What does this fold into?
Amino acid sequence: MPNIFRLSNISVGKKLNILIGCSIAAMIIIAALLLIQNKNTMFADRTAKTQSIVELAHSSINRYVQDAKSGKLTIDEAQNLAKTAINIMRYDGDNYFWINDMHPRMVMHPMKPALIGKDLSETKDPEGKKLFVEMVDIAKKSGEGVVDYQWAKPGEDADKTFPKISYVKLVPEWGWIVGSGIYVDDVNKAFLEDAIQASVVIISFIAVLLFGSIAVSRNIKLPLTRIAENMGILAQGQTIKVKDKERSDEIGSMAKALENLNIKLSEARAMEEKKKELKKQADIEKRQATLALAKRFDDQVGGMIGTLASASTELQATAQTMRNVADDTASSSKAVASSSDQANSNVNSVASAIEELSASSAEIASQINNTRARSNDTAERARHANQTVQNLDVLATQIGEIIWSIRDIAEQTNLLALNATIEAARAGEAGKGFAVVADEVKKLATETGKKTSEIEEQISQIQGATKLSVEAMQHIINNISEIDDAITTVAAAAEEQNAANMEISRSVSDASQSVNHVAETIINVETGARETGHSADGVLDAASDLASLSDRLKISVEEFLHSIQHDNAESETVTAAETTAGHHPEDDDQALIAAE
It folds into this structure.
């Protein structure tokens, strides 16, 4: 069905008009049906009355028929008496009976005797109906019945006809049809009067109905229009003043519901404003918390980075010191080696000059004293080298402690990076940049931990090499002490040179072996010094890497803090833009109305 014929597409006023029109049409139809039924009832009453009267006339004729059958009267006598009796019968004033036969011919007519004996088959009323032929047909078919036609009324103009109904009944023994009719113009008149009265009543009722309908329509349509307009105003986000709330009908219920909706929308707008204010405050607090976290992170990590940078600088200085100490140790070892070579040469000279000891004892004593002085100098240098190596061991221990501090700093940095990652995850979308930087910090802290482990291994190697150097130096000192003792023995034996040349030769041989051993020991010390120098170079490289990592960590932290400040600045700009642009509550109201 097209949408135009749906009730949902028709306004309430038109629906009421349709209802009123249908009511009026139904009223007119019912009134017409009642009038027609009343008219038919009146005709039926007249027909029944005529039938009963004709039954009386038929009974009267039938009595004469029975007299003729019984022989009391001849047929002619009986028929004449019957015609005479019917001729004088009247009812309701001028109403009469007539008799015609089946031809049809008029047998008896009290009002128009001229018709008696005449052929009635061509007799017609003004409408052309052959009324007597129809009477014969009814008598043949049913024996009795009703015929309606137009006929002149007694006392009226002969040319003027009136509606009339007649009831006819067959007298089969004689072939007569007795009938009587009544004029029904009064029925039509009564019908017209009833129609006029009904029309007046209907028109009055329609007027009352229209008046009442208009009043009811206005009472319904206008409030509904106001409600629709108010809902449109509500949809635009404005406050309304609802009328008709005092009514007790459905419109009153709608008005009350609209008032409740108005209140709820007002509350919703207030709640939305409060929600926006709370969100704004929460954003401010969030930015403040983020800035505080960034500041705390800057303070903690920045301090650690400074400590790390200082430690790397100190480590570089320590490594450089180790390198210098190793160089000094190598130089001292070379000097000791040179002295050992010289001592060996002297001992050889002593051995070659044994034959001349007697003649040159003074020279021997001088050489012995010189050898003792050099031996003492060598011992002093060995003790100095031993002290240097011990200092190197102390420095290596201090470097180890610094490495542990660096490892603690790296672990704390890693923990702070983990906390920063957690805080970034809590911050959601705004913390994505924070999370990236925190992850980079975590990677740098992990790399720092690895480097400190490598440095720690190198320090351990340095400490091992240092211990070996200390042991070697101690051995050198012991050897030099032995050399000193040997020289003392040589000095004592020089006084007995002449008597103990063989003993001097043996002592010189022992001294030569000791000097060779010292030379070999000095070579080991020099090798240890070189290894210490290489280790110091490794420590220096590790310190440089640590300084580089410290610089990269500092740059990453600065970028991270800059990202946080930039995000907060953008958030403040967006909030200010939203505040400047304003808020349109009608959008929220429309959404709330749609949801309800």
User: Anything to note?
Assistant: The first strand starts at residue 97 and ends at 101. The first helix runs from residue 12 to 70.
